[in-house]
Amino acid sequence: MCKTGIPAHDKLPVYSWADIRKHATKSDRWIVIDGYVYDVTCWSKKHPGGERLIANQAGQDSTDAWIAFHNDKKAVSKYLAPLRIGRVREDENKESELIKDFRELRRTVEDMGLFKASVPFFTFIMFHIIALELIGWLTVYYFGTSWLALLIASLFLLSAQAQAGWAQHDYGHLSVFNSSKINHCIHIFLLNFFKGASSSWWNYRHYLHHAKPNTIYKDPDIRLDKLFLLGKTLPIEWGKKKKGFMPYQQQHKYWFLIMPPLLLPLYFNYEVPYFLWSRKLYGEMFWMATFFLRYIVMFYPFLGVSGALLLYLWVRFLESHWFVWTTQMSHIPMDVSYDQDDDWVTAQLKATCNVDQSLFNDWFSGHLNFQIEHHLFPTMPRNNLHKTSALVKSLCAKHGLNYQSKSLFRAMSDVVSCLKESGKMWFEAYHM
């Protein structure tokens, strides 16, 4: 039964963590924020980030996740207050030294103004995306449709699409404007209209990923087990149970044939429309359709309808390689396991690593080479992530956490190495 009302602090029931952890089922969900217990069973269905995001936090302390994802905490708190049903026992409501230091670090970077976006930076990002797309179109307009002209044009169009992908990520995290509404509108413009995907679909997947990165059955980005087994847990489990229909011991080889070339042009072109249709998000379907109309209008005079669509698939095929390697190199080589109910900092450091800073690496990855800082502070504008790096390194050194930063080549090669290792684990467990 859903509970409402705002009892006074001293009249709130007191619960132990053993009591709280029992409330982590589909019909009974409690979470803890700042020492208070909230019954979010009914509210989870109304949560803007989706019910599953709340479900994945049930029975746990969600304080730092709540802080990380909400810019306007005062406005969001009014929704929490009626859901408050108790508080954690005083002797069990103690911050670890790591979390104390992390929260102090967050206050420090807030005071430094690092959650304020640079207007010139994001203006340049937007204009350079549009310029890349325009140059791609002008290449075809002036030089025709020879294979060389189309190849050169496709490289500009590819860069525009990839950079728009990194830019929409900024607006999806509400890290550019103070207004969530403005961020959301530009997010739809970039992702639906400019890229032909979906803002709601991205939010659903990406926030689940951030809340529980590399967590089996909770992070959708690692739900690859039909084709690939990641980490050291599932390969052994599946091997012992004789599960799996792929030759996983060869997954580091067929990875090159499946994941980088096919994720965007094949799988996402199926998943996104299915997501929108199943949730009846017809408005977003309209904006997604305008992308394909725009592409046809741009290239129909030179290539016809079928030619324009083939060019789109070719660009998406190229972009898929860029996208997959860039997003997976910071996660696949890291720990992949079941939910250990780790604190926010430990969970993010176990699942993420950085790629060394350079002008090229920053541009190529949309500053997601600072994956550790981004996961710790997901609403921080990307142009400020490098400014927090030294502080985060100090925090990790003090508490014995592994802060990894690699070269671009090593980060990509580690993906293949880890796939090979996981496949070998499955094969050995299967044939024991």
UniProtKB/TrEMBL annotation:
The cellular location(s) given in this protein's UniProt record come to: Membrane
Position of the signal peptide: none
Query: Residues in domain Cytochrome b5 heme-binding?
Result: 12-89
**Keywords, ordered alphabetically:** Heme, Iron, Lipid metabolism, Membrane, Metal-binding, Oxidoreductase, Transmembrane, Transmembrane helix
At the top level, the lineage of the source is Eukaryota
Name any Gene Ontology BP term. lipid metabolic process
Quote the cellular component terms of the Gene Ontology held in the record.
membrane
GO terms (molecular function) for this protein are:
metal ion binding; oxidoreductase activity, acting on paired donors, with oxidation of a pair of donors resulting in the reduction of molecular oxygen to two molecules of water
Among PANTHER family, the record links this protein to: DELTA(5) FATTY ACID DESATURASE FAT-4, FATTY ACID DESATURASE 2
Write out the similarity annotation.
Belongs to the fatty acid desaturase type 1 family.
Q: What is this protein called?
A: Fatty acid desaturase 2-like isoform X2
- Source organism per UniProt: Biomphalaria pfeifferi
Taxon lineage: Eukaryota, Metazoa, Spiralia, Lophotrochozoa, Mollusca
